[in-house]
Automatic annotation (TrEMBL), chain A:
GO molecular function ontology, one term from the record: nitrogenase activity
SUPFAM superfamilies, sorted: Helical backbone' metal receptor (SSF53807)
Enzyme class: oxidoreductase
EC number(s) on file: 1.18.6.1
Name the record gives this protein: Nitrogenase protein alpha chain
Species name: Rhodocyclus tenuis (Rhodospirillum tenue)
Keyword set, alphabetical order: ATP-binding, Iron, Iron-sulfur, Metal-binding, Nitrogen fixation, Nucleotide-binding, Oxidoreductase
NCBIfam families in UniProt: alt_nitrog_alph, ANFD, N2-ase-Ialpha
Family: Belongs to the NifD/NifK/NifE/NifN family.
Catalytically driven reaction(s): N2 + 8 reduced [2Fe-2S]-[ferredoxin] + 16 ATP + 16 H2O = H2 + 8 oxidized [2Fe-2S]-[ferredoxin] + 2 NH4(+) + 16 ADP + 16 phosphate + 6 H(+)
UniProtKB/TrEMBL annotation, chain B:
Superkingdom classification of source: Bacteria
Protein's UniProt name: Nitrogenase molybdenum-iron protein beta chain
NCBIfam families per record: anfK_nitrog
InterPro entries: ChlB/BchB/BchZ (IPR050152), Nase/OxRdtase_comp1 (IPR000510), Nase_comp1_CS (IPR000318), Nase_Fe-Fe_bsu (IPR014280)
Domain Nitrogenase/oxidoreductase component: residue ranges: 20-445
One of the record's GO molecular function terms: nitrogenase activity
EC number of the protein: 1.18.6.1
Keywords: Nitrogen fixation, Oxidoreductase
Family per record: Belongs to the NifD/NifK/NifE/NifN family.
Keyword Lipid metabolism: no
Name of one Pfam family that matches: Oxidored_nitro
Amino acid sequence: MPHHEFECSKVIPERKQHAVIKGKGEDLTSCLPKGYLNTIPGSISERGCAYCGAKHVIGTPMKDVIHISHGPVGCTYDTWQTKRYISDNDNYQLKYTFATDVKEKHIVFGAEKLLKQNILEAFKAFPKIKRMTIYQTCATALIGDDIDAIAQEVMDELPGVDIFVCNSPGFAGPSQSGGHHKINIAWINQKVGTLEPEITSDYVINYVGEYNIQGDQEVMTDFFKRMGIQVLSTFTGNGSYDDLRGMHRAHLNVLECARSAEYICDELRERYGIPRLDIDGFGFKALGDSLRKIGLFFGIEERAEAIIAEETARWQPELDWYKARLQGKKVCLWPGGSKLWHWANAIQEEMGVKVVSVYTKFGHQGDMEKGISRCGEGALAIDDPNELEGLEALEMLKPDVIFTGKRPGEMAKKVGVPYLNAHAYHNGPYKGYEGWVRFARDIYNAIYSPIHQLAMVDISKDAIPTDRGFVTRRMLSDKGLPEEITSSTVLSPYTGKFDSVSHLRTKTYPDFPRAADTAGDAEEIIAVVE
Amino acid sequence: MTCEIKEKTRVGTVNPIFTCQPAGAQFVSIGVKDCIGIVHGGQGCVMFVRLIFSQHFKESFELASSSVHEDGAVFGACGRVEEGVDVLLSRYPNVKIIPIITTCSTEIIGDDVDGVVRKLNEGLLKEKYPDREVHLIPIHTPSFVGSMVSGYDVAVHDFVKYFSKKDKPSLKINLITGWVNPGDVTELKHLLAEMDVEANVLFEIESFDSPLMPDGSEISHGGTTIEDLTATADAQGTIALNRYEGSKAAKFLEKRWDVPAIIGPTPIGIRNTDTFLQNLKSMTGKQIPQSLVRERGIAMDALTDLTHMFLADKKVAIYGNPDLVIGLAEFCLDLEMKPVLLLLGDDNPNYKTDPRLLALQENVDFEMEVITNADFWELEDRIKNKGLELDLILGHSKGRFVAIDYAIPMVRVGFPVYDRAGHYRYPVVGYKGATWLAEQMANALFTDMEYKKNKEWILNVW
């Protein structure tokens, strides 16, 4: 029986359906945990709420917007500054967050007037910002405030101002995933098609499900621009509100995080006939294939191939330096949702590590399908894990490193397992060729930290080596490696800079002349769809 | 020269200084041994609060959620609490105390948490856990009332009220610390030990700074026990260091069990620490020993090196928990600094009559503003649009962007601090805290001179 029963969860038998160990010769048809079901109260699950899924994950990475949460201050405060979605406009969306500050009297008498005052105050404080998103919270959903009506009222009164409303209270669904869905649909219903974008290329995409964690979006957009592709909008990292109103004019939706943003892609296909192409920015092979697929779609494969060749030549020796040293290291891949399948295969193939467990906090069964199929035999897959199961799994699997969130990372630290932040990264970005090497570097630095090794020494019992006053990572990682690797003149550890992103913001790109007839075709296609 | 106490005039909040009540109750909950709280509401109310605790203390703490979903919001979610209590008890054999902490959503839908507790006490606990000591404590902390500060006050009160019981009089005192760091608790216990005073420290969170042990056995958790809480009724007195974080419990003990209470002052700075020792002396009859005279002398020596030469007349803005802010402002005045702007992040009506603020009003000889129900825009707007010039900002990490964007030196103090290393380990209370604070402020100013090339060749050299 592939289902795995945790000792600590025997008293809640339904949990058994939520964990599997992939056995010999088994595939998805014989083992798949249940997923995306209601959380068991009191289990100390790691899930968040639908409000944070909508506002914190998808809404706020949008960069040129006043983001207001309509409710008491806590929802806003708690999510503020806990994620690294940077932007190229001095991080306005990270620095400023707004709460309508609903108090008891508003709960009794309604908070619509309060909301309107808030909107006006916010626009007054930041006169240059003309765009706003408003997020419902548990409190204002329950008292039944009509946020849409207030937003419309303000838009009627203040020409030039545009407001988006997302009704996704914290209780709306088993996890943050419910909020992802709600904001996807709300955006296409309210905003897509309300602004006509300027088309400057024959090849136009929306980059969807990408949140610019430590600069991922900027790295990926660099590749697209080098291919002469116009990135009409990014949903939503480093994305601009008005650009996202023009999503309907793209020729292709390039989808990164299919967990959080496939809904809007599917709607864009349904309503505007724009095809969806799922890609992967993580890993040399997956990224190369992704660029190739996009190139193939537009008939510009050679541009993709040129980038792949150049980037691979530049970074492969550095990735391989780490691969030689990470070979066989055991990893628990415990992210939120999509990274379990984005990373599972790629890190095994390209960094040599072994994924001994995957888990997902808010993923659905589809994410588990992809994740488990990309894991090897014996991997433990857990849906909606909880504190005790996590500890039991660490005890059982004894991984060398764990990729997870900040707080579970602290739990792992205490049992002697180093962690990397899977949501916000350590020293990212991790997308792109260079980013992937940075990820390998961070994994290497975690596993071979001399301090981590020292933490395992019990000075009351163990032998205390007194021969020297230090140990380097290389002394630990290169022990037993063949001479041709340790003294290779080809392989090299990471040589990039601390900041691998800022220079992209001032970069210039080659001018690809547009083919007049192709442009005509594109417009025809759109006309037909309309 | 005036000192105005006024409420923010805007209704909204741009960059909040505080989070809401349930977070305060959760902070109390993790300070108690064999206790895991269940927060009755959406999952984010727990998940993000646990994250902020881990960002600040670099540790993971256990708190559960009743995971209210849509059906619960529509039909009532008391069943989620019942199930949650059972699941928690069945998987955590050491848990004895479960506070049920309410939130905005479950207060609005009107879940009868007290009724659920009665039902569980009569039913589940008797039937399934007859031989087990279990305490369920309803804590009402709707998010639309007060702030994390009042949530803390309410929860301390509710814990003390639930457990306190007279047995036989003891010589111990109760020391209710308020929302502090492990380093503060260490320093307070040191002062108590030097005074030879036995105290019941609520809450015993020194252990939040916990080790990474070779056998991986350590879990971060507070150390206050049921016995400690019960014995609060037998103490010869209570000192609540903070007026807004713990005084409700001190007053309860006074009224219900005749345990005399002294509220405040927060022992920040030399003068307030002196008063704290004086209060210990008057409550217990113990003398202030030479060792503390000497320790105080070391602090005075350090401060004398800094005050009139470097710190005098420096203009400071301070924000955060009210007792912390007021204590820091008082200390700054002793250091000859000018706390020109104090921001208190909630609308507690008692601020207007706080004797410490009234004393500031009477005596400061420069323009000073105290803003209640404040947000960070009150700070930034004054700098950006109204010509406020500051030399220093004191406060927690959430306000860091003002310091960064306007290049104003800042010393992180309060909760949460997630962009500096190790702050939870250092005290801001007691003589050691006074020294540490003054030296942090001086060093922040020195570094700033170097960055701004502002007389650094002469002014940061003794």
